[in-house]
Amino acid sequence: MTDPTSTVLALLDADMGSQRATGEDNSADHAPYILLADPAASAADLAEKWLARCGIPSRSFRNGEDALNACLKQRPTLALINASMMVSNGHPLFSVLKREAASRDIPIIALCNNPREAREALQAGVTDVVRKPVEWHIISRRAEMVCRTVSLKHQLTVTREALQAAEKKAASTRRHLVAMSDTDPLTGLLAVGKFRELLARALVNDDEVVLFIIGLERFALINEAFGRDKADRVLTLVGKRLREILVRRDLHAPGCNSVLAGCAAKMDSVRFGIFMPHNGQPEHLQAIRNALTETLAEPVNVDGKTVYLTSSIGGAVAPRDGSTAPVVIQNAERAMLGVKKRGGGFDFHREHAGLSSARFLELDFWLREAVDSGELKVAYQPLVNLWNNRIVGAEALLRWHREPGGNISPAEFIPVAERSGIVVQIGDFVIDTACKQLRRWLDNGRHDMRMAINLSLAQLRRGNVIESAEKAIDKYELEPQLLEFELSERGAIGNDPKIMRQLHQLKALGVRLSLDDFGTGDTSIEYLKRLPIDVLKLDRSYISGALENGVDAVIASALVGLARNMNLTVIAEGVESKEQYELLRSWGCHLYQGFYCSPAVFGDAFERLIDDQEDSSSQEQRV
Ligand code: C2E
Ligand code: CA
Ligand code: CA
After folding, report:
1. Euclidean distance between the first and the last CA atom of the chain, given in angstroms as a whole number
2. What is the atom index within ligand 1 of the atom nearest the CA of 595?
3. What per-residue confidence (pLDDT) applies to 3?
4. Which atom of ligand 1 is nearest the CA belonging to 490?
5. Most buried in the list 71, 118, 488, 582, measured by CB within 10 Å?
6. Does the beta carbon of 456 lie inside 6 Å of ligand 1?
7. Does 397 contact ligand 1 (Cβ within 6 A)?
8. Quick check: helix, strand or coil at residue 312?
């Protein structure tokens, strides 16, 4: 035989299930009532009378089954049950009530005839017991209190549940809205989805587009030091600076009739993106790049303290570096991650020179042969004193002539050598060859010559430049100060302790250090002061742009002034005309280098240049 209680519980479960399924709530919540189950007719009468007086409706039943049916239809707020019924036909009712009492807080009061019944009822799990004959005026007061408390508690639960549900809904709506929204609420920049969409549109409409991904470095420190709110304000400020870049008219590509000026977005917590239409001119890329690095390098005031942000910026140009939004973004991101590893700075996507993977493998393979077969040669470009026009030294520049195919530019093969690691061997070859050449010139009576040698960061990371330099100095018996090692600002030297240590070790050898391509990176003055350098080489782009572009001229002359104040020698690169030469003198540069004097030539031709110069100066003296 089935236990009637378990049948009832099953029914109850089914009943509750259907309530849940329909979302209907037919519990005692809406109309509280007290359920009385007592076989005595007098009890029912009295209970109803007294309970009605205190404003609580009641329903009384003389047998357990009817009471159970009522209970199943609508849960009572409070149940009064005759103790003897609990062990007879009221048992299923009691089981249901007990279960409900546990989950829904329905107090059960047992009406007992004697102490034994009271004890057993309490053991069975009722909330409270009262002795018969029941003093209904007391019971009614107690019932009223209980009902009020239960109702209050219930209201609280309902309110809390409703609040939680509302909060949950609001949070999900907020998330949804943010995801759907076109803008990032913190910075006011575009949200990433919209950014991708607009980039895709620009890639279809514009001939070329340049995209930069900017990652803020060590932002966690700002978060920690100033707290989340203030750190958020820094992000807002970065957003503002990027928006200002977008509206700068001087950064709009001339000849670009794009509908869209460009867009900026917050890509994730500390990563930003910005793209602009581009006209294919390197000067335009340079201008945006400079603007970005400058604006991000500007200090931020947080809580009255000056904070310098470090950023890693990766650039990609479409369609050269990809023709779809995801690919262009990915390539800029890769460039950014490369920069990040070096401690911050700037770089374009490496394959931007059109170097496909196949070309890379080809060059890598040929280079290994070239090192052994002697195809690689070193040429020398004169360094000229701007004030007396005398050649005071040379920069060693690699030349690679390969048959068939002709000359391959170092601008193309050095990055390949850097990536494959062969730059270490090539670099050692240049150091040895250039030092040997310097020894020859010195032996030929050119006593005031010095030699500048390019170093790449990869050489410092992977090779042993100190040892190679020391070896060459000893071998060719050179005064170390006649050697100058150039390191490009383009590669972002960063704060890598290994690189810094090597720079100091080089300085300790007595050689001079020079910061090449100055003005293309994002070196701050503070950082510049920490670099153990003697020479600044102002990048060619400033010289070529200076005559046409007033801004370039102002920046370049300010950079020269800055370098002079720091007691650095300033060399201007890429001087091609008399006008540029005159301009550089007016800025106060010390030396120059460029086609205006001569391109890089091999050793013997270089000696002839010196001879010619001596001839012409002696002629001048005669005149
Ligand atoms: P760089 O160090 O900035 O060298 C100056 C570049 O500008 C040279 O290009 C030079 O030929 C060119 N140049 C000099 N004067 C003028 C001018 O008046 N007008 C113009 N338009 N260009 C001028 P090059 O020789 O093609 O070298 C390109 C880059 O390759 C170098 O830039 C340097 O970064 C790298 N490189 C060359 N040789 C070496 C080397 O031995 N080691 C390393 N690590 N890098 C090297
Ligand atoms: Ca150089
Ligand atoms: Ca340079």
Report:
1. 135
2. 18
3. 41
4. 34
5. 71
6. yes
7. yes
8. strand
